[in-house]
Amino acid sequence: MGILDMLTSVMAARAARDLDPAVIPVILSEVLGSGSDSGLTAIVAKLQQAGFGDQVRSWIGTGSNLPISAQQLQDVLGNDTVRKLATRFGIPVDQLSTVLAQVLPTAVDQASPQGTLPRTA
Fold first, then answer.
1. Is 96 exposed, middle or buried (0-12, 13-18, 19+ CB in 10 A)?
2. 8 Å CB contact between 102 and 12
3. How far from chain centre, in Å, is Cα 7?
4. How far is CA 64 from CA 4, 8, 103, 106, in A?
5. What dihedral angle (degrees, nearest 10) is formed by the CA atoms of 56, 97, 73, 24?
6. Taking a C-beta distance cutoff of 8 angstroms, is the pair 121, 107 a contact?
7. Model's pTM, two decimal places?
8. Helices marked H in 1-121
9. CATH of the domain at 88
10. Residue 116 counted as domain residue
11. Per-residue pLDDT tens for 47-83?
12. Which domain holds residue 95?
Protein backbone atom coordinates (compact mmCIF):
# COMPACT_ATOMS: atom_id res chain seq x y z
CA MET A 1 0.00 0.00 0.00
CA GLY A 2 1.41 3.36 -1.06
CA ILE A 3 1.45 6.51 1.04
CA LEU A 4 -1.50 7.99 -0.87
CA ASP A 5 -3.54 4.83 -0.26
CA MET A 6 -2.65 4.97 3.42
CA LEU A 7 -3.67 8.62 3.70
CA THR A 8 -6.94 7.97 1.89
CA SER A 9 -7.60 5.04 4.22
CA VAL A 10 -6.93 7.13 7.32
CA MET A 11 -9.15 9.96 6.07
CA ALA A 12 -11.98 7.55 5.21
CA ALA A 13 -11.68 5.88 8.62
CA ARG A 14 -11.85 9.26 10.33
CA ALA A 15 -14.89 10.24 8.25
CA ALA A 16 -16.58 6.92 9.07
CA ARG A 17 -15.86 7.34 12.76
CA ASP A 18 -17.35 10.85 12.73
CA LEU A 19 -20.43 9.74 10.79
CA ASP A 20 -23.41 8.79 12.95
CA PRO A 21 -24.90 5.55 11.55
CA ALA A 22 -28.36 6.81 12.54
CA VAL A 23 -28.24 9.47 9.81
CA ILE A 24 -27.64 6.95 7.02
CA PRO A 25 -31.35 6.06 6.57
CA VAL A 26 -32.31 9.73 6.41
CA ILE A 27 -29.66 10.56 3.83
CA LEU A 28 -30.40 7.47 1.75
CA SER A 29 -34.10 8.35 1.81
CA GLU A 30 -33.29 11.80 0.45
CA VAL A 31 -31.01 10.47 -2.27
CA LEU A 32 -32.84 7.28 -3.25
CA GLY A 33 -36.28 8.80 -2.86
CA SER A 34 -38.89 8.40 -0.22
CA GLY A 35 -42.13 6.58 -0.58
CA SER A 36 -43.21 3.34 1.04
CA ASP A 37 -39.65 2.19 1.73
CA SER A 38 -37.07 3.73 3.99
CA GLY A 39 -33.66 4.57 2.57
CA LEU A 40 -32.20 1.45 4.16
CA THR A 41 -34.94 -0.72 2.73
CA ALA A 42 -34.28 0.74 -0.71
CA ILE A 43 -30.52 0.17 -0.55
CA VAL A 44 -31.03 -3.33 0.86
CA ALA A 45 -33.35 -4.13 -2.06
CA LYS A 46 -30.80 -2.75 -4.55
CA LEU A 47 -28.01 -4.82 -2.98
CA GLN A 48 -30.11 -7.99 -3.02
CA GLN A 49 -31.04 -7.44 -6.68
CA ALA A 50 -27.35 -6.95 -7.48
CA GLY A 51 -26.44 -10.34 -5.97
CA PHE A 52 -25.36 -9.31 -2.46
CA GLY A 53 -28.10 -11.17 -0.62
CA ASP A 54 -25.65 -13.06 1.60
CA GLN A 55 -24.17 -9.82 2.89
CA VAL A 56 -27.59 -8.24 3.44
CA ARG A 57 -28.91 -11.32 5.28
CA SER A 58 -25.88 -11.24 7.57
CA TRP A 59 -26.52 -7.56 8.42
CA ILE A 60 -30.20 -8.15 9.16
CA GLY A 61 -29.61 -11.44 10.97
CA THR A 62 -28.20 -11.89 14.43
CA GLY A 63 -24.77 -13.24 13.47
CA SER A 64 -21.68 -11.36 12.40
CA ASN A 65 -21.86 -8.96 9.48
CA LEU A 66 -20.25 -9.95 6.19
CA PRO A 67 -18.28 -7.13 4.56
CA ILE A 68 -19.02 -5.37 1.30
CA SER A 69 -16.33 -3.52 -0.61
CA ALA A 70 -16.36 0.14 -1.51
CA GLN A 71 -16.27 -0.75 -5.20
CA GLN A 72 -19.23 -3.11 -4.86
CA LEU A 73 -21.28 -0.36 -3.21
CA GLN A 74 -20.19 2.17 -5.82
CA ASP A 75 -21.29 -0.20 -8.58
CA VAL A 76 -24.70 -0.77 -6.98
CA LEU A 77 -25.39 2.86 -6.05
CA GLY A 78 -24.04 4.43 -9.21
CA ASN A 79 -21.78 7.46 -9.61
CA ASP A 80 -24.56 10.08 -9.39
CA THR A 81 -25.83 8.75 -6.06
CA VAL A 82 -22.30 8.53 -4.66
CA ARG A 83 -21.68 12.15 -5.68
CA LYS A 84 -24.92 13.29 -4.01
CA LEU A 85 -24.10 11.41 -0.81
CA ALA A 86 -20.55 12.76 -0.77
CA THR A 87 -21.85 16.31 -1.08
CA ARG A 88 -24.43 15.74 1.67
CA PHE A 89 -21.90 14.21 4.07
CA GLY A 90 -19.11 16.64 3.15
CA ILE A 91 -16.80 13.73 2.27
CA PRO A 92 -14.64 13.63 -0.87
CA VAL A 93 -16.33 11.55 -3.58
CA ASP A 94 -13.42 9.11 -3.76
CA GLN A 95 -13.82 8.31 -0.04
CA LEU A 96 -17.59 8.06 0.25
CA SER A 97 -17.89 4.46 -0.94
CA THR A 98 -15.19 3.43 1.53
CA VAL A 99 -17.02 5.16 4.37
CA LEU A 100 -20.35 3.62 3.37
CA ALA A 101 -18.79 0.16 3.13
CA GLN A 102 -17.63 0.59 6.72
CA VAL A 103 -20.86 2.11 8.11
CA LEU A 104 -23.72 0.56 6.13
CA PRO A 105 -23.53 -3.00 7.56
CA THR A 106 -23.72 -1.60 11.10
CA ALA A 107 -26.54 0.80 10.18
CA VAL A 108 -28.62 -2.04 8.70
CA ASP A 109 -27.75 -4.27 11.67
CA GLN A 110 -28.84 -1.61 14.19
CA ALA A 111 -32.03 -0.88 12.25
CA SER A 112 -33.05 -4.55 12.31
CA PRO A 113 -32.67 -5.76 15.91
CA GLN A 114 -35.58 -8.18 15.49
CA GLY A 115 -34.24 -9.60 12.23
CA THR A 116 -36.32 -7.42 9.90
CA LEU A 117 -36.05 -3.86 8.68
CA PRO A 118 -38.89 -1.63 9.83
CA ARG A 119 -41.40 -0.64 7.15
CA THR A 120 -42.44 2.97 6.84
CA ALA A 121 -45.82 4.12 5.67
1. buried
2. yes
3. 21
4. 31, 26, 14, 10
5. 40
6. no
7. 0.69
8. 3-18, 24-32, 39-49, 53-60, 70-77, 79-89, 93-111
9. 1.10.10
10. no
11. 999 999 999 999 998 889 999 998 998 899 888 888 8
12. 3-111
